[in-house]
């Protein structure tokens, strides 16, 4: 209830003042006795909520950053796993290890299929050279061995 409402009803100013005074007494009587205590407790709780919201925001930021770092690390691990798988499959397919990075696919089956297809183009790798200590049918090989084993005085 307010003064404008009472004035619109056509009441006199003195009557309005008396009604408003009586209404104020009624409101004060309905007001709890510990109203000021409740008001200060409310303000304290609002401050605590603000502080906790700040802490929660900081924690969420830290969690988001850690989640991002975890995602990056999981991507790196996946790349390493795929690279290891490509190297193993290239070795099994008889491809040079330098070409393992050229294999495509994400699953083992896809990489194996690509390695087989690639191996058909590349051909079989040449066998590794044997050590020079291997016996040959050459007539000069004993002289070559003697020269290789010869130590010069300066050495």
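^ structure tokens above, recovered residues below v
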């Amino acid at each position: 209830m307010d003064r404008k409402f009472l004035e619109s009803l056509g009441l006199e100013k003195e009557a309005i003042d008396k009604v408003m005074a009586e209404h104020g007494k009624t409101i004060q009587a309905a007001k709890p006795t510990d109203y000021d205590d409740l008001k200060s407790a409310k303000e304290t709780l609002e401050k605590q909520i603000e502080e906790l919201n700040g802490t929660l925001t900081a924690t969420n930021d830290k969690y988001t950053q850690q989640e991002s770092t975890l995602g990056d690390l999981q991507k790196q691990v996946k790349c390493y796993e795929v690279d290891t798988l490509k190297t193993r499959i290239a070795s099994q397919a008889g491809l040079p290890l330098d070409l393992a990075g050229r294999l495509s696919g994400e699953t083992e089956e896809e990489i194996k299929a690509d390695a087989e297809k690639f191996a058909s183009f590349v051909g079989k790798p040449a066998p590794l050279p044997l050590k020079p200590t291997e016996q040959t049918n050459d007539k000069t090989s004993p002289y070559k061995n003697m020269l290789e084993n010869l130590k010069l005085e300066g050495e």
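Residues 1-31 form one domain.
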